[in-house]
Amino acid sequence: MNTQPSEVERQERVRTVRYAAVVVLTGALLCCGPRHSTQEQPATVPPATAYEAHVVAGDTPPPSGSLRNPHHGDSAVARSGALLFTAMNCDGCHSGDGSGWVGPNLGDGRWRYGGADAEVFSSIYYGRPRGMPAFGAVLGSEGVWTLVTYLRSLTAPPDLPTESWQN
Amino acid sequence: MRAAFIAVLIELAAAVGCGSGAQAAGQAARAEDGQWTMPAKDYAGTRYSALAEITAQNARSLHPVWTFSTGVLGGHEGQPLVVGDTMYVVTPWPNVLYAFDLTHEGYPLRWKYRPEVSANAIGASCCDTVNRGAFYAEGKIIYNLLDGHTVAVDARTGREVWKTQIADVGNGETTTMAPLVVRDRIIVGAAGGEFGIYGWIKGLELSSGRILWTARNIGPDVDMVVRADTFRPPYDHGTDLGAQSWANESWRTGGAPVWGWVSYDPQLDLIYYGTGNAGPYNAEQRSGDNKWSASLLARRPQDGALVWAYQFTPHDSWDYDATGAMVLADLTIAGQAVKALVHFDKNGFAYTLDRASGRVLVAKPFTTVNWAQSVDLSNGRPVINPAKQTGASRGNIKDICPSLEGGVSPASPPAYSPRTHLFYSATNNFCMDYEVRPARRLKGTPFMGVTSPYSAGSGGYLGSFMAWDAASGTKVWENKEPFPNWSGALVTAGDVVFYGTLDGWFKSADARTGHVLSKFKVGSGVVGNPITYRSPDGRQYVAVYAGFGGDWALIAGDARSDDPSDIRAPADPVKDIGRHTSQGGIVWIFGL
Q: CB distance B569–A99 less than 8 Å?
């Protein structure tokens, strides 16, 4: 239940921009294969997040952790995330623009496992049932946050619920 | 009742040939028994039935007599089996097996088998959670579960006899293909051409499920079960062709999956199957021919030894899988009797080969083709149009025909009638732009790197159903369809051909003219393959699955309605398909 950013998180934020540049410009992440950063500590990821709007028994929600995206709304990081989305083969399942293929549409503003930053983080970091791989070990928290920032920058069309064939 | 059923099974065992093997199976194929015990009706893969109660004269009165919701929404490829007085149906993931009692009104279930199948396999499936069907042999229903297992289920009791892991989902291998059983060998393979697998085919022991041999489709001779004394390719010489034709050992992640169909010639004792695309899509990462991806392989079923191989699309730069069916037929070509093999390839050419030697006799385009001008019969190689060669350094190559969906989907097997001497096949009329980038393999994720938007081919239609003369390489008739055609074909001795459409019509047509005799809207788009059989009541029926799906890029995600958190726009250029169909698996039976 670490509601305050940890020391490791604060350090990560400082490293952010440089990290994204490394990933995107040199592809270092991709050339080194699965990576277990020595700086990566389990404490940077909460033990649990309230990833879905579950029905709450007894009107008492269970305690849950939270994470803050250090790049929330940062369009430069979002652009880096778009490149990372392709480089990590995300497009192979979710399509090049995230509009969905075998994997669901990520740009429709709707989410199976929640669309808040921390919820999307959990989906990528730990994977999900039905075949979403866990990317936490190869991307690290910073790489996942970069992807989250990109995905959260996608906007859904306003008429999304309705598909009409009438003129 | 049970005694009577066992008697039927014993009779059936005698007909299909428990133990006496190929010879008896060949006899069973010649004498029409009214059953449908293997995916394509017979080892030759003809999807031809000698039943003739339904004819071109009376097919007009075909109507549905029974339907059953499978409760599953994935694309319903494949086909039911009818063995004795039971119909068997395998669903897409989670691969439920239903056994219907055809002796009782309403065809109630005798049993259903619900295996545990990992949901992780859903994400490792490139193109929907399909299953291409089961095989009946020696009292067992044999089929593949999506998560890399083959199972044998007792055809009478529904109890699991054995279950064998054959593939690794974590490595991108899924198992959608229809097995083939020859004597005591079960032939199985795995999909994964979009995940950088090291493609293979395996022989399992029918009684135990034990893996007896594994043969890679690419790589060094020792992995491919290539031996100097048995390997006789029609156009190639040398050793380790499956490794030498890949720069930098790129065969290790080169794909060449097996996700379609297997045929068998009892006289030559050869199994025939096609391999899928080479990976990744950026062909510049794998210079060379990339043998034997996008190829036809002939092996001995007993030990898997490769006898010959022919590559339809060398250095595949367009995702032209060759996993479509290989249909064996004895044809007369230029006055000569030929033991032929006919194959409609994703690359848009229809091939007629000598199935003993592997030499190409006829190769003609059956749809719009511009990646190659022709196939050179002197060396079997396509004459490639250099302007359509793709690669990461070449940028966006525009207007390549056919698209990577194929001139026909390999999921849509053709039929052959020995009465009309014609082949019947669905086709697609798509072209594409193709832009690839360097891809890096990250195990468990796609190994592709392509953007490939589709456009309609010329002529104002997106698909068709056609009759093809494989002796001359000419189209005899063609029914154009507004949408791509993703259905398999069935033809009967009543000279009626059956097929479904993506917008959900099930049609019968005159096999000689293509004239549509009947059609019925079956509730969901058809991507399955019709079968016909004689029921315990002595009458001929036709069965087919409805159940739109099988390829997310093509079929438009807006045709799914089961997930409120996943809303898709219509897919170009089939924008209207969602107006005509939605997902949902239904088994249909039609009768007179």
A: yes
DSSP code of B518? Answer: E
* Three-state secondary structure of chain A: CCCCCCHHHHHHHHHHHHHHHHHHHHCHHHHHCCCCCCCCCHHHCCCCECCCCCCCHHHCCCCCECCCCCCCCCHHHHHHHHHHHHHCCCHHHHCCCCCCCCCCCCCCCCCCCCCCHHHHHHHHHHCEHHHECCCHHHHHHHHHHHHHHHHHHCCCCCCCCCCCCCC
pLDDT digits (tens, 9 = 90+) for B87-142: 999 999 999 999 999 999 999 999 999 999 999 999 999 889 999 999 999 999 99
Candidate list B95, B131, B277, B485, residue with the active-site label: B277
Q: How far apart are CA A92 and CA B196, in angstroms?
A: 12
DSSP-derived 3-state class of residue B465: strand
Any chain B CB within 8 A of the CB of A96? yes
From CA B55, how far away is CA B494, in angstroms rounded?
A: 4
> pTM, whole model, 2 decimals?
0.91
Token pair recorded at residue B452: 């490939």
- Residues in CB range of B335: below 8 A, 6 or more apart: none
Answer yes or no: are the C-beta atoms of B503 and B412 closer than 8 Å: no
Give SS3 for B77. Answer: coil
Q: What residues of B are in contact with residue A91 (Cβ under 8 Å)?
A: 446, 448
Per-residue confidence (pLDDT) for residue A135, from 0 to 100 = 96
The whole domain housing B491 covers 2-591
Q: Which residues of A touch B576 (CB under 8 A)?
A: 165
Residue type, B448: M
Report the CATH number at residue B398. Answer: 2.140.10.10
Rounded Cα distance between B422 and B473, Å, is 11
What CATH number has the domain bearing residue A94?
1.10.760.10
| Partner-chain contact B579 A165, CB within 8 Å | yes
- Note the pLDDT tens digit of each residue in B530-567: 999 999 999 999 999 999 999 876 777 888 889 999 99
Q: Measured between CB atoms, does B123 come within 8 Å of chain A?
A: yes
Which residues constitute the domain of residue A124? 7-36+69-153
Q: What is the pLDDT of residues B211-237, one digit of tens each?
A: 999 999 999 999 999 999 999 999 999
Among candidate residues B319, B435, B495, B503, the one labeled active-site is B319
B319 catalytically annotated: yes
Task: Classify residue A75: in a domain, yes or no.
Answer: yes
Interface test with B, best of A51, A102, A139, A151 (most B CBs within 10 A): A102
B3, containing H or E segment: helix B2-16
B440/A101 CB distance under 8 A = no
The interface residues of chain B toward chain A in range 90-119, judged by CB-CB distance below 8 A, are: 119
Count how many domains chain A has. Answer: 1
Take residue B561 and report the two structure tokens written for it.
Answer: 């309605």
- CB atoms A110 and B127 under 8 Å: no
Chain A residues inside the 8 Å CB shell of B571: none
Question: Which tokens belong to A58?
Answer: 């007894």
Instruction: List the catalytic residue out of B194, B316, B405, B469.
Output: B194
Rounded CA-CA distance B264/B217 in Å is 18
Residue A140 lies in a domain: yes
- Beta carbons of B448 and A163 less than 8 Å apart: no
Number of domains in chain B: 1
Does A58 fall in a domain?
Answer: no
Closest among B256, B191, B274, B194 to B219, alpha carbons compared? B256
How far does CA A77 lie from the centroid of its chain? 12
